[in-house]
Amino acid sequence: MGASVAVFVGFTAFWAFIGIICPFFAPKGQNRGILQLVLMLTAATCWLFWLCCYMAQMNPLIGPKLERNTILLIAREWDNNPILPDE
Q1: Dist. CA 15–CA 22, nearest whole Å
Q2: What is the pTM of this model?
């Protein structure tokens, strides 16, 4: 699974809209500055969280746990000679 440019651009554009465009439409009032700040911080942190999750799926640190028989079966099907650890 590789990175998809369309997905990256789409989610970045969505959170950029929330964080850059939406603060201009905050209602006028005493708390307008706070509401604008909340929108910008929410967009930035949600985008960063999404980016971390998306990147972690590209190169996972933990792989599947396979039994010895499964490894041997895969190796036979792929014409490979596995080096198995002693149990």
Answers
A1: 10
A2: 0.67
Distant-in-sequence, close-in-space partners of 47: CB < 8 Å, separation ≥ 6:
11, 12, 15, 16, 19
pLDDT tens by residue, 1-60: 567 889 999 999 999 999 999 999 999 999 999 999 999 999 999 999 999 999 888 877
Question: 4-18 as b/e, with b when 16 or more CB fall inside 10 Å?
Answer: eeeeeeeeeeebeeb
Distance CA 18, CA 9 (A): 14
Q: What distance in Å separates the CA atoms of residue 87 and residue 68, rounded to the nearest whole number?
A: 10
Dihedral over Cα of 62, 67, 73, 75: its sign: positive
